Amino acid sequence: MGELDEVLALGWDGGAAAGPSQAGAVGVGHGHLGEGWLIGHAINGGVLMALGASAAASGLASVGHPDLLTWGAHFLSAAVAGPVEVRVEVLRVGRTVSTAEMRVVQRDEEGRAHERVRMTGTFGTLDRAEPVHRAPAPPQVPAPEDCLPATRDSSPLAAVIAVLDRLDARIDPSTAGFAMGRPSGRGVLRVWMRMRDGREPDAALLPYAVDALMPVSFDLGALGWAPTMELTGQLLGRPAPGWLLVEMTTDTVVGDLLIEDVCVWDSTGRLVARSRQLAGVRLPGN
Amino acid sequence: MGELDEVLALGWDGGAAAGPSQAGAVGVGHGHLGEGWLIGHAINGGVLMALGASAAASGLASVGHPDLLTWGAHFLSAAVAGPVEVRVEVLRVGRTVSTAEMRVVQRDEEGRAHERVRMTGTFGTLDRAEPVHRAPAPPQVPAPEDCLPATRDSSPLAAVIAVLDRLDARIDPSTAGFAMGRPSGRGVLRVWMRMRDGREPDAALLPYAVDALMPVSFDLGALGWAPTMELTGQLLGRPAPGWLLVEMTTDTVVGDLLIEDVCVWDSTGRLVARSRQLAGVRLPGN
Lengths: 286, 286
Hints:
The structure is a homodimer.
Chain A: E1 10-12, E2 26-33, E3 38-39, E4 42-43, H1 45-60, E5 67-75, E6 82-93, E7 98-107, E8 113-124, E9 132-134, E10 148-149, H2 156-159, E11 167-171, E12 188-195, H3 206-209, E13 228-235, E14 244-254, E15 257-265, E16 271-280
């Protein structure tokens, strides 16, 4: 993910001889969160998850588990542009999978640490994710060129979403009513996405992809911020080059709590990632 | 949950004056895992999650956040019957929700700690989960007395499932083919459940309920162990007294990875909990 790649070099406590080969090992990586990842004044949460995952994956590759398979992330505070640390603690090294905890931390001017995200992930290899025995099929969506581009000049809301300069997002017209003040109320959004810099999707991009776009609550007429409490995801295959199709749905809203489900298909129609999150929501009239 | 309740007394680092009111606070609770929670030689994972959740909830009740709302759990090693510790670290105390990490740990004869589950949970109050704006409706299932009781004498497989002495489980006949060697292959199991000791369901029971029963892979003809890598869940309401209806489904199996979704409805038909897990599976013929 562009400038985030520099975080991949983890230093392990104990010096050069130490490494992630056993439970208890701790490594720390340093990176930088560019302003290009901002949505308003906060860094996109998907970027933080991709950062945490790639830091741990780079370490666990040496034990044969280079791919995130499933993870959970609890969001603790809003991240800002600037330096960032990822602390990786290996919890378990197994034969087929390993588990690590990742803490995404930023320091203030006095050097005090502020944790942004606490993640736990299980890593292995996506080679095992073959063949596809069953998976939800992608919905019928017009081709990207027949969808509505989400650009910063499209609305005052979009103007503060800096990531739209990096992300080419094309909204299925049948789910784009929210942008014209006519949300469907069904709780469905479908968006094609790819990176503007030409980067092709890979497994490392997918934790970002599941949380890169607008919340499904937009389609319920709730255009405000929908703070994510917890997000969990699964990677289900390596994406082919080309566009990703992202579908956001909700079938559960109780009080001001909403469950959002996301499916991501690659350009061949293969399901490559899923996520579910519990978020706060304020429905119109409530 | 019977004998697990004793874990509710947490001691906080720093003595009596300390408490969970700020990030960084650490409390430790002690309990005992009875043999009655065994499935084969391992304690049921749902029991461990309920234990971790109740330990943290007992602490966070003092800041107005007594209910688990959403959590993720990574399973690190199999728990055995005997003493257990839950270490709770408060990660964030907010106005409407707080977040804590829970480590469920057992010690061996030499006193070495073995972590069983690493959980992270967000807590608040389920009072906010009203009204129900939308939620999946419960499936049509015959009344419990017209379903098939799962008892230890029903099969060699069931004989080692000690929890069936505590749990009254009644399987929807239309999804019970696995027990007669005729799994449907659809990937659906529906089971009524209640505790045999007369305990009525409450929010604290729900993290157990989502993982108390047989894996959905039974209905795919995979009768072996389906090791859970990660499970995430959401609590969506306080259950009414009476039976819980638990539906387990899978729509995603890639290679030897399976996503299991669980919905739990109370006796009034209200959806009260959901979970999703990534588990390993070995399909017949693979």
